[in-house]
Amino acid sequence: RELSSMGVKELCLVAQDTTRWGQDIYGEYSLDKLLEALCTDKDCNFEWIRLLYCYPDKITDSLIAVMKKYDSIAKYIDMPIQHINDDVLLRMNRHGTRETIVSSVNRLRNAMPDITLRTTVITGFPGETAAEFDELLKFVKETKFDRLGAFPYSREENTPAYSMPKQIAKKTRESRAERIMEAQSAVHAEKNDALLGKTVKVLCEGYDKVAEIYYGRSEKDAPEIDSKIYFSARHRVKDGEFVNIEITEVSDYDLIGREV
What we know:
This protein is of the alpha/beta class.
């Protein structure tokens, strides 16, 4: 309520595992109830409420239903999967399985076909075989996440994985991450090309005096981690103002457009 009264336009709900919200208070996952309360409270008037770090094994049907119900909930979710092979997930001490991940992706997309799915994966975790990596690479290509980051496993002292057998060479870990990002680059290019000629609502974040152009984000992009939209405008656009932008160009991961 305090943030809303200050004029904040976007509320990002983020924790190490946001989907566990309410478990310590109510004894059950209650993120859906929190979202319902935020969307129906007359003193909370956010344009976008964004969810980050929601784990696939805890994405309930009721959470999906609430996301679909309210326009103020951004059709966007950051769902870190880390891997897709069940043996690797078990070694990582992840609670989900391939079946859990696939189910969550399908349920979210079936309910909200335009939803933006962001995820992260780790390559070269101790014991990851070439076949297990190939399974991950194939899954990334087929699932076509809207946003994806791939990171080579980093061996850290005082962690269970540090002493695991079959440590993967650093060069292999890094090359596998590069292959994932190459595949994702093609996916991202395909999705960006599909936006050419479309009009999207953009939250202005500032003005680049050197390039003489405004920049901001759409509902599909979280602050600091996702892409930008650069645009020209017919009037002076203030930071925090929403404008409708026609996408005219693609520049790698970013988009370029003009106010309509």
